[in-house]
TrEMBL record:
Protein name: Protoheme IX farnesyltransferase
Coiled coil: none
Entry keywords, A to Z: Cell membrane, Heme biosynthesis, Membrane, Transferase, Transmembrane, Transmembrane helix
Miscellaneous comment as given in the Swiss-Prot or TrEMBL entry: Carbon 2 of the heme B porphyrin ring is defined according to the Fischer nomenclature.
Lineage: Bacteria, Pseudomonadati, Pseudomonadota, Alphaproteobacteria, Rhodobacterales
Annotated source species: Cognatiyoonia koreensis
Cited InterPro entries: Protohaem_IX_farnesylTrfase, UbiA_prenyltransferase, UbiA_prenylTrfase_CS, UbiA_sf
Summary of the function given for this chain in its UniProt record: Converts heme B (protoheme IX) to heme O by substitution of the vinyl group on carbon 2 of heme B porphyrin ring with a hydroxyethyl farnesyl side group.
């Protein structure tokens, strides 16, 4: 990537909003929510102030990852319609600024988390930032159609970090929360990729639908959705689960699986005919899916404080 090729020809002065956009706030909100749930459902109570500092560090770390990703991917972001208005390709923030912000926030978030909580949580946060910025962004994304499968681990670590903040360790519950997000990521992103194919193809990103075609992608969407079901239900059988979570998991998995099945049974002609209506709808369902599962875990934790939740 050439910084010079991305320099703005104007003297635009970046605003706070431009710098905040570098942090990918929508992604950050999901990270914060899942990390918070991981912290609150753990069996060890955390002082509210320590919990606040921990979640702040995780949010800042997620923002650092976003800034580093935007710095590295600025060349392909400029090609894709979905990302062309991001701060760097749009000329509102210079690449060097994004790199400096990403590095500074990375160091700040990891060190503060270590001082406020424990080194395991800080180590997991550091590894998450490294995995997203280096392993996924710099290597996997442009190297293999399995980019989103392996790279999905970066987005799956936050609840495990939250759990580690509280407990100082790793439990089957945090592993399954990690696995839930990890297995959810491929069908979620491939549903998006099916109706954004031209964007990825133009940018030279080897998404599965670009390299292996839509039929293979549709097969993978359904396959991963099927593998996701036992993970979601298995989480409900652990100490953080309960009847409310299990009911939510059964309903949401049935809904999401139906959407993925509808994607699988279609062909390109049918998708073109209705402008990928099924794919777009299933992508929306996938957003509700993850939120509902973690909200149900949080509700179970609240009910347990009243002697009502859990098995």
């Amino acid at each position: 990537m050439s910084d010079a090729s991305l320099q703005s020809t104007t003297d635009y002065e970046a605003s706070m909003g431009d710098y905040f956009a570098l942090l990918k706030p929508r992604v950050m909100s999901l990270v914060v929510f899942t990390a918070l749930v991981g912290l609150l459902v753990s069996p060890v109570p955390v002082h509210p102030f320590i919990g606040f500092v921990a979640i702040l560090c995780i949010a800042v770390g997620a923002g650092a990852s976003g800034a580093l990703n935007m710095w590295w991917d600025a060349d392909i972001d400029a090609v894709m319609k979905r990302t062309a208005k991001r701060p760097i390709p749009d000329g509102r923030v210079q690449p060097g600024e994004a790199l400096a912000i990403g590095m500074a926030l990375s160091g700040f978030s990891v060190v503060l988390l270590a001082l406020a909580t424990n080194w395991l949580a800080a180590g997991l946060l550091a590894f998450t930032i490294f995995f997203y910025a280096v392993v996924y962004s710099m290597w996997l994304k442009r190297a293999t159609p399995q980019n989103i499968v392996i790279g999905g681990a970066a987005g799956a670590f936050p609840p495990m970090i939250g759990w580690a903040v509280a407990t100082g360790g790793i439990g089957i519950e945090s592993v399954l929360m990690f696995a839930l997000i990890f297995m959810w990521t491929p069908p979620h992103f491939w549903a998006l990729a099916l109706f954004m194919k031209s964007d990825y193809g133009d940018a030279g990103v080897p998404m599965l639908n670009v390299t292996h075609g839509t039929r293979t992608t549709r097969n993978h969407v359904l396959g991963y959705a099927l593998l996701l079901v036992p993970v979601a239900l298995g989480l409900g059988l652990t100490s953080v689960g309960g009847p409310l979570y299990m009911a939510t998991a059964v309903a949401m998995n049935a809904w999401f699986l139906k959407g993925c099945y509808d994607i699988w049974k279609r062909d390109t002609d049918a998708a073109d005919a209705d402008n990928f209506a099924v794919e777009k709808n299933t992508f929306k369902i996938s957003l509700y899916y993850l939120f509902a599962h973690f909200l149900a875990l949080l509700a179970e934790a609240i009910l347990k404080t009243q002697g009502l939740g859990g098995w």
